[in-house]
Amino acid sequence: MSYPVYQEKQWNYPVFGILLIMTFGVSMVLRERTPGVWLGPSVLSLVALCFANLTTTLTADHLSWHFMLIRLPGWRIALRDIISAEVSQSGCLEGWGIRFTRSGMLYNVSGTGAIRLYLKNGKTLRLGTRDPQRWMSYLQPRLADLQR
Fold it and tell me: Which keywords annotate this record (predicted)?
């Protein structure tokens, strides 16, 4: 088992406010005893909850990330498959979540800070983070060691 060298949990706190409002709405609908109306908001609440947190983990040999507690969906990349990394920003129009962008995939739940990874297969991706500089301070030395 490979232990984490660095791990960050990125939270999207506004989701919890939305969930509170949706819960209130569902409770009001249930008071009216309208059958089936609660199903839509309940499903949306569960989906929102699943994507309220992004955990990114760096170990000695790989980088992995997943949303919330269920770890699905989850991704993992061997450090040897990363050519380079840099500090990046996501635009406000790119939004949050799992996004297909012109510059590759974006995985983010809040803010605009990110690290961009250039992969050996020619693809690029960005992982959202509160502190991209700190991430780079842990990631760059490991990538440099693999290129020697």
Answer: Membrane, Transmembrane, Transmembrane helix
